[in-house]
Amino acid sequence: MPQLNPSPWFSIMIMSWLTFSLIIQPKMLSFIATNLPINKTPTPTKNNLWAWPWS
After folding, report:
1. pLDDT of the chain along its 55 residues, tens only?
2. What is the DSSP secondary structure assignment for residue 40, as one 8-state letter?
3. What is the pTM of this model?
4. Radius of gyration over alpha carbons of the chain, in Å?
């Protein structure tokens, strides 16, 4: 079965992970988020009590 031979596929996997880790990921992480949650004011939550019929 040719799928069990790791020689061509292992090098392709290593090269793709290195490309992602060293080139693409730092470029993606350099973007600044435009909607930071720090700027939002927290809204208080209203807890509704449930009246259980068997209590």
Report:
1. 556 777 788 889 999 999 988 998 888 888 877 766 676 677 788 888 888 887 5
2. S
3. 0.45
4. 26
